[in-house]
Amino acid sequence: MNGGASSATAPAYAISAGALRLQRRLALLVVIVPILGTVVAIALAFRHGIGAVEIGSFAVMYLLTMGGVTVGLHRYFAHKCFETSAAMRLVLAALGSMAAQGPILSWVTVHRKHHAFSDRPGDPHSPHIENGKPVGGLRGLWHSHIGWMLSEDFTDWVNFARDLMPDRRIFWIHRTYFLWVILGLALPTAAAGLLTHSWAGAGLGFLWGGMVRCCVVNQSSWCVGSVCHYFGSKRFETHDHSANNYIVAVLTFGEGLQNNHHAFPSAARHGMLWWEPDFSGTLIALLSRLGLVWNTYHPTNEAMAKLRTAA
Question: Structural domain tally of the chain?
Fold first, then answer.
């Protein structure tokens, strides 16, 4: 399974020089601004200490946005691991957009393209391939972690996100992406300000629930495409370099179990063994018990045994 595309080679798409420059500038902002905000937050923590406002703002927003990416953008929209209601679709799309990893159609397109050409020419963010040419070492890791966002256009939605385009509500969330990013920063700011009745509290909410959260969520998420295709263990035969990295899996609610995921892309739970960290799989199971999602997919024991034997 490849997450929604099965072309033998990657299609070519053109982008204007102006649009490419804008894409690169926005990507740099997403990378640099949260890092700068994190530096400020840490400096203030060393000077004044850290309290419940900082920890609470970070924890709540990390749960909401990382869950929005892993359960929403990834397992639901990109892979259709379960079914849900129209209202829940909107909630998952909005939370995923707040993470500031790109508009929903672009996110799904990049991810499905990654599965279609995993670690081969056409993969947008493989640490082993850059612009169709083999690379390795630090250059490959840089490209797969951040460099890919500065080098290509990923707007071929017709080929990789055709199923989402007719949904007017989802397309509206795509078009209003920046509003959701701003909301992801405004919510912890407003909540912390109201709880503390102070501008200082609001500032701490912005830094920890906004900047630090954004930095950690996104850097951890990008490790899935870089670190987890370079370092880790392989349980299943997948014909690529995907690996299970348990440190990344903890940080990303189970996304670091890349070998498991590439073996069974449509599995709602990436943790195939009880001890493998997959908080997103647990969230999906909880949502299923509450009746908010249904028809979750999980591979059979026979299918898993076949790929384990091949590996």
Answer: 1
Which domain does 140 fall in, by range?
A: 17-233+292-300
**pTM for the full model?**
0.92
Flag whether 278 is in a domain.
no
Domain-located, residue 179: yes
Kindly report, residue by residue over 260-275, the tens digit of the pLDDT.
999 999 999 999 999 9
Which helix (H) or strand (E) is 288 found in, with range?
helix 279-289
Reduce the DSSP state of residue 249 to 3 states and report it: helix
Q: 């930095």: which residue's tokens? A: 215
Give the Cα separation of 126 and 227 in Å (integer).
10
Cα 121 to its chain centre, rounded Å, is: 22
C-alpha Rg value of the chain to the nearest Å: 19
**Alpha-carbon distance 42 to 49, whole Å?**
9
3-class DSSP state of 68: helix
Residue 130 lies in a domain: yes
CB within 8 Å of 231: residues ≥ 6 apart: 243, 245
